[in-house]
Amino acid sequence: MADTTKPILEISDLWVTFPAYRAEPVHALKGIDLRIDPGEFIGLVGESGSGKTTLARAVMGLVPPPGVVERGQVLFNGRNLSRLDDDARRAVLGRELAMVIANPRAELNPVIPVGRQIANVAYYHLGMGRAETDRVALNMLRAVRIPDPERRFSAYPHELSGGMAQRVAIAMALVCSPRLVISDDATSGLDVTVQAQVLELLQRMVGEKGASALFITRDIAITAHFCSRIAIIYAGEIVELAETAAFFVRPAHPYSIMLLAAFSHNPALRARWTRLPGDGETASAGGCAFAPRCVRRQNRCVDEAPALRQLADGRYVRCHFPVEMAAA
After folding, report:
1. 261: how many CB neighbours lie within 10 A of its CB?
2. pLDDT (tens digit, 9 = 90+) per residue, 189-240?
3. Residue 194 CB coordination number (10 Å)
4. CB contact set of 271 (below 8 Å; sequence gap of 6+)
């Protein structure tokens, strides 16, 4: 039986760096700290280029070369996957740790029927016979609500809609009942109706499997319905971490408020929290990465990088002048 008192994922001071030609190395992740307990559904929100996918790959021990983990560690169920050899890592990936990506057609083999692809995952990781894996795969197609699953078992990926292909990808990720599921913008390419259906399906099945989930998205509104805690990432740093209800009642970091203001129908509110950097204005090496875009920027923000610290209500914020502190 799994130990529910220990975190399923523990990330400590994680730095991931990519070399740059004739330039300083790019720090894709800078001191990430994050913990996911058994059964938690954590949302990781940030714009494109913020480091979300790099973090997902680092969790799986698959930082793409020439990227390197400069320092820090990622412990999944107490193990550092980056230190395992290829065979040991493959035994964990798919069996205990699974990922659902945004483009399922890139994940699915175009020349193998989708039912067989699900069965192959069970065959490799669970050691079942072919007849048993076929039965399990068919049950998974039913569980993810694929219409006419008996017929779709023999269908090829190009014969499925985007929504059905994503359901197949979810079935592949969950067929072995993993302990942690990472969803990396898994519904970004779907229309809103299908997106809601797939998200509800993923939440339900992750819960039924007793798993935890790291839900990575650019759409902060989605996290309100599906996540227990929310982590906001900007320029490779977590800038706010809070319980979902508390976060949406009163976000504390200016970037968090800017993301929420983007959904407002009030132009004045959007303008109040949105600032475009001036010509040639960039973050200083020793200052806050968000300073050039921050409407609350002060001299200290330009000169001194803020640390991630805990506020009175239990949330963590990386800001010298968080909004809650100003309102207190």
Report:
1. 18
2. 777 887 788 788 888 878 887 789 999 998 898 899 889 999 999 999 999 9
3. 17
4. none
For the chain, what's the residue count?
A: 328
Q: How far apart are CA 112 and CA 310, in angstroms?
A: 50
Residue with tokens 């523990």: 10
Cα(166)–Cα(190) distance, rounded to whole angstroms?
A: 9
Q: Tell me the angle at which helices 162-174 and 114-126 cross, rounded to the nearest 10 degrees.
A: 10
What is residue 328's predicted lDDT score, i.e. its pLDDT? 39
From residue 81, alpha-carbon distances to 2, 6, 107, 122, 240 in Å are 18, 17, 21, 21, 26
Q: Do residues 9 and 75 lie in contact, with contact meaning Cβ atoms separated by under 8 Å?
A: yes
Pick the closest to residue 237 from 71, 25, 28, 80 (CA basis). 28
- What is the Rg, in whole angstroms, of the alpha carbon atoms belonging to the chain? 21
How many degrees, rounded to 5, is the angle at CA 11 between CA 19 and CA 202? 105
8 A C-beta contact, residue 288 and residue 305: yes
Helix axis angle for 130-143 and 114-126, nearest 10°, is 120
Using the Cα atoms of residue 116, residue 120, residue 121 and residue 123 in order, give the sign of their dihedral: positive
pTM: 0.91
Mean pLDDT of 58-72: 92
Query: Comparing C-alpha atoms, which of 12, 48, 1 is closest to residue 28?
Result: 48
Please count the CA atoms within 13 angstroms of the CA of 3 that sit on its side-chain side: 8
Instruction: Report how far apart, in Å, the C-alpha atoms of 166 and of each of 20, 144, 324 are.
Output: 35, 10, 39
The predicted pLDDT at position 262 comes to 87
98 within 8 A of 178, measured Cβ to Cβ: yes
